[in-house]
Amino acid sequence: MSTHRxxxxxxxxxxxxxxxxxxxxxxxxxxxxxxxxxxxxxEHGVCGACTVQLDGDGVRxxxxxxxxxxxxxxxxxEGMADGPELHPLQAAFSAAHALQCGFCTPGLLMTIESMLxxxxxxxxxxxxxxxSGNICRCTGxxxxxxxxxxxVDSRRKEGR
Length: 160
What we know:
This protein is an alpha+beta fold.
């Protein structure tokens, strides 16, 4: 079996690993780097639970091979908080009760954060449409939409 040497930056740390060409990025993150905040749901790119940011864009890590991320910067949910201080989006999720079981939450956070600038100009129906690629079976999405709006409003007040 052939292997490939990859170098990736994950949450600011550089990792050099030798991987199978068929190793999914989600499995690399979870099993090679032991960052288990990236959840694997459907393994078909439909549910959004495995969303991470690859060079700033939200991507489904279950649809990419680890070798495709060679030379890229990856951000997972573990890279959001600043030590014990929650990222403003995480704090908004907590305040709006935007999570229940929490399985979808990391993927939602990664998706939303990568789209915050775009979301700032959207109406509630447009926000819901933008998040439709992330499935949550518990919350009914109202708390999630409220958290997005609160984060967008806070950023607007800060001039971002």
